[in-house]
């Protein structure tokens, strides 16, 4: 835990309370020192004062969100106005501790933050495991969110679609492909009603920019909705398989 506050009694008070809870705590006496320490190592939880000389808490929050998105930030402030609260939440603040505060209040908020960091770590671990599995699948895998931004894909997909550009993480779907058949079934999946489930398929041809599509290769894309427990559509999952051999068998049978 990193405590950033220009008031010595607040810094040392947080240190004493949290170390008694078996937390590892370090302190910074201003925002500039805090950002320097954040640049040197990772902290699971950052407690920062909002109003400090020089670099203030808002700038600290913005840097934490940019450089340590899996860290949890808590604002300690005597200026907890609605306007400040909204701005801080937009910059990633998890919670507020108004000054003056009691040791119990600090313990409760930090305990919630610890639970959040564990949840974030579990999600990151599962995401890594999922990505490892997806990367070794024979078919191409493409996962988008509701806004058609790419949130997961594997190398097989890029090879099948002839993509050799920049990283696609969090990029819009059109950065990968403009194939109307592929984008069409994804659009249709994302437009499904709450609780509705369909599997939509389309045959697409691999096409590399600057080259004519091959008449010898065929791909089949199958898209399904990704839903939460309430049946709300969160995004789409598309699997792309090479069906060239199936096409060749059909042609042989026809002959």
TrEMBL record:
SUPFAM superfamilies: CheY-like, PYP-like sensor domain (PAS domain). Residues 126-163 form the PAS domain. Keywords: Phosphoprotein. GO terms for biological process: phosphorelay signal transduction system. Residues 1-114 form the Response regulatory domain. CDD domains: PAS. Pfam families: PAS_9 (PF13426), Response_reg (PF00072). This is Response regulatory domain-containing protein.
């Amino acid at each position: 835990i990193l405590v950033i506050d220009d008031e010595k009694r607040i810094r040392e008070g947080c240190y004493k309370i949290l170390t008694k809870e078996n937390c590892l705590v370090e302190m910074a006496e201003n925002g500039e020192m805090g950002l320097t320490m954040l640049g040197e190592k990772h902290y699971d939880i950052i407690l920062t004062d909002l109003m400090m000389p020089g670099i203030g808490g808002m700038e600290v929050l913005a840097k934490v969100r940019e450089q340590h998105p899996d860290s949890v930030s808590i604002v300690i402030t005597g200026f907890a106005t609605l306007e400040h609260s909204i701005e801080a939440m937009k910059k990633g603040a998890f919670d507020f501790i108004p000054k003056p505060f009691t040791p119990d209040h600090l313990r409760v908020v930090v305990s919630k933050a610890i639970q959040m960091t564990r949840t974030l770590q579990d999600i990151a671990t599962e995401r890594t495991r999922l990505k490892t599995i997806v990367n070794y699948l024979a078919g191409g895998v493409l996962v988008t969110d509701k806004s058609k931004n790419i949130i997961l894909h594997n190398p097989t997909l890029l090879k099948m679609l002839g993509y050799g550009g920049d990283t696609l993480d969090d990029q819009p779907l059109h950065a990968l492909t403009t194939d109307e058949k592929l984008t069409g079934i994804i659009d249709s999946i994302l437009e499904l009603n709450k609780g509705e489930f369909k599997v939509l398929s389309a045959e697409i041809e691999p096409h590399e920019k600057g080259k004519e599509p091959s008449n010898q290769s065929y791909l089949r894309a199958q898209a399904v909705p990704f839903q939460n427990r309430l049946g709300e559509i969160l995004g789409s999952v598309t699997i792309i398989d090479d069906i060239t051999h199936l096409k060749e068998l059909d042609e042989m049978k026809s002959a």
